[in-house]
Amino acid sequence: MIMTLIAMATLGALPGEPMYRADDAEHVKVYYEPGRFGGWPANYGIWNWGDEILVGYSRGYHKDLGPTMHHIDREKPEEFWLARSLDGGKTWTHEHPAEQGSLIPRGVALHGTETPGLELPPVTDLKEPMDFTHPDFALTFRMEDYHGGLSRFEYSYDRGKTWNGPYALPDFGTPGTAARTDYIVNGKHDAHVFITVAKENGREGRPACVRTKDGGLTWELVSFIGPEPEGFAIMPSTVRISDTELFTTLRCREGTFRWISAWRSLDNGKTWNFENNPVEYAGEGNPPCLNQLPDGRLCLTYGFRGYPYSILARLSDDNGKTWGPQIVLRDDGTDRDIGYVRSIVRPDGKVVTTYYINDQATGPERYIGATIWDPNSISEITSGNAERQAAF
Fold first, then answer.
1. Which residues contact 382 (CB under 8 A, 6 or more apart)?
2. d(C-alpha 388, C-alpha 13), whole Å
3. Among 140, 377, 179, 182, which Cα is nearest to 289's?
4. C-beta separation of 26 from 371 below 8 A
5. DSSP string, 118-172
6. CATH of region 2-390
7. Which of 373, 365, 370, 288 is nearest to 334 (CA)?
8. DSSP string, 52-101
9. Which of 22, 60, 141, 155 could in theory staple to 179 by disulfide, Cβ–Cβ 3.0 to 4.6 A?
10. d(CA 172, CA 220)
C-alpha cells in the first residue's frame, strides 16, 4: 500500500490533490550547442542585480551513456561557464572566466577534465576581508569532491566579470566539505553560509550552517542541520524570515527514495527543527531552490527526475509551515537527466528559473534553459490530471 501511494505521488502530489500550471510561462534557451552538454546550474549559483542575471553552468560534450547516467563525455573537457542576461532572462550572452584569467574552475570538472592548456592557480588563504554589502558583489563556493574534500570560494565586485580567489574554506573538523553556493548577507563583513560536509564515515553528506563575521578571514561552524542521515541530506537552499529566523530546504535520500525536506531555526542558525517535507517524492532526486517573493511568500523550485520529467514549483504563504499544490513550469523533458534549478525573482515579481534539460524538439543534447513565469498567474490543470497521476 505504501509503495502504491508513492507510485501515485505524481511529482510529490498525493492522489486527488489539485495540480496547477504556470500560465503563459515563457521558455528560453540560455545555452545550447549541437553535440555539447550544458548542465547543473545548482552546482555553481545564480545572482541578480535587478534585471541583470548571472548563472553558472558546466559546458561539456554530449555522449549517450545509457538511461541511468549523465549524458556527458567524461573523456573530453568540461568547463565552467557563466551566462549573463541584461533583460530579465529573455536573452543571454556567455563568458568563460578561465580564458579571462579569473575564477579558474578548480574542482568543477567532476565528470571530465579541466580546460586543456590552462594553469590552475593555487588555493590560498584570504588576506583582506570581503565586503558583502558591495552593490556589485557576488560570491561562489565550489568543492573538489561530492563526498567531501577541499572547498573553496571566489568573490567578485563587478557582477562576476572578474573574480578574486580561489580561497580555502575550512573543513570545520569534518572529514571534508562539499560546498555549493548558498549564503545570506547579514552585514558588511557578516554572512551565514550553508554547505554540505562529509559524514563521519567520509561519505556524502550532511548539511551545516557556518558563519563569518570578519569578511571571510575566519569561519565558525554554527551548527549541523539535523542529525547525521543514513543516506544523505545535501545542497541546502535557505532564506531569512526575520532577524533571528532562518528556513532551509534540503535534497534528501534514504536508499532509493528521494525527497525534499524543510528545517527552521529560530535562533539564527544555532539550532534547527524539522518542519515538513515540501516535496514528499522527487523521483531520482534533485536539489531545491528557495526564494522569497516580494509579497513575502516562499517559492520552491525543483526538477523531477521521473516521468513526466518536469520542472516544478510550490508556494507557501505562511513561511513554509504549509505548501500549496505543485505548479508545473514545464513537463516536456525526455528523460531523467534534468533539473538542478536556480531561480531569481525579478523586480516585477516574475521568477526566472534556470535548469538543464533536453526535449523532443531539440534532440538528445542537454541544454541550459530558463522559464520566466508569474507566481500570481497559475491555473488548475483539469484536463489530463487523472492520466498524469495514473502514469505513476
1. none
2. 11
3. 182
4. yes
5. -PPPPPB---S---TT-TT-EEEEEES-SSSB-EEEEEESSTTSS-EEEEEEP-T
6. 2.120.10.10
7. 365
8. EEEEEEEEEEB----TTS--B-TTSB-EEEEEEESSTTSS-EEE-GGGGT
9. 141
10. 7
Contact 119, 106 (CB under 8 A): no
Rounded to an integer, what distance in angstroms lies between the CA atom of residue 339 and that of residue 357?
7
Alpha carbons 317 and 375: distance in angstroms, whole number? 12
User: Can you spell out the DSSP letters for 185-246?
Assistant: E-SSS-EEEEEEE--TTS-S-EEEEEEESSTTSS-EEEEESSSPPSSEEEEEEEEE-SSS-E
Burial of residue 10 (number of CB atoms within 10 Å: 0-12, 13-18, 19+): buried
What's the Cα-to-Cα distance from 143 to each of 140, 169, 270, 355, rounded to whole Å? Answer: 10, 10, 24, 20
pLDDT (tens digit, 9 = 90+) per residue, 106-139? 444 443 455 666 676 789 999 999 999 999 999 9
Q: What distance in Å separates the CA atoms of residue 68 and residue 195, rounded to the nearest whole number? A: 27
Smallest CA-to-CA distance from 200 within 171, 220, 235, 180 is with: 171
Supply 54's cell numbers. 548571472
3-state secondary structure of 350: coil
Long-range contacts made by residues 262-266, C-beta under 8 angstroms, separation at least 24?
Answer: 262/320, 263/225, 263/226, 264/320, 265/209, 265/223
Q: What is the pLDDT of residues 202-261, one digit of tens each?
A: 999 999 999 999 999 999 999 999 999 999 999 999 999 999 999 999 999 999 999 999
Hey, where are the domains in the chain? 2-390
Distance separating alpha carbons of residues 327 and 71, to the nearest angstrom: 27
